[in-house]
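Q: What would this complex look like in 3D?
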Amino acid sequence: GAGVSQSPSNKVTEKGKDVELRCDPISGHTALYWYRQRLGQGLEFLIYFQGNSAPDKSGLPSDRFSAERTGESVSTLTIQRTQQEDSAVYLCASSLASATYNEQFFGPGTRLTVL
Amino acid sequence: AQSVTQLDSHVSVSEGTPVLLRCNYSSSYSPSLFWYVQHPNKGLQLLLKYTSAATLVKGINGFEAEFKKSETSFHLTKPSAHMSDAAEYFCVVNTPNTDKLIFGTGTRLQVFP
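A: Here is my prediction, written as structure tokens for the whole assembly.
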């Protein structure tokens, strides 16, 4: 079946512009995660959803970052007034129920470049 | 607070020799631990996981890891490296009562012919 998909695969934007990143999880996966991976670094947790609710938003770097999920399916990560330090690969993952006991399946990522 | 420390940012081995990627964890609870692999230009993939069952966990592609509570370690090993094992490896720990996972900073494995 289809895996996790993300769009766009690449996004180049100017500083100060807003961007919206999309994640389509595997059908039936109730848990959805967003991570950020800066060049040469590990994954930084941003937010996760159980269904359409986000129990943990502690990883969002600032109030310029927001995310939503609808229909227990698609999720969008929005970055307002982008800054150069936002440049990174943004990864989405989904899992059946709890990721503590179930494998996370990762999408290919969106590479964001802020000029 | 939960955390993982990957002790080596880079490991280089010759093809056919053993692989050891080190990971130490910190957790105030009995943790769940994972190893994920990221091949160049490919998505992250689960190698193996420990969730309080057997302490020696076998994963895909001949990798295994042993949970050692006394040493707070979860090192990843493979008896004989293959060129296709060259990738970035991440040690991961869960946080109790949530589904948040904490990733280590990664170890880049290079395999030389």
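A: To summarize the key features: Residues 94 and 101 of chain B are 4 Å apart (CA to CA). The mean pLDDT of chain B is 91.
Q: Very helpful, thank you.
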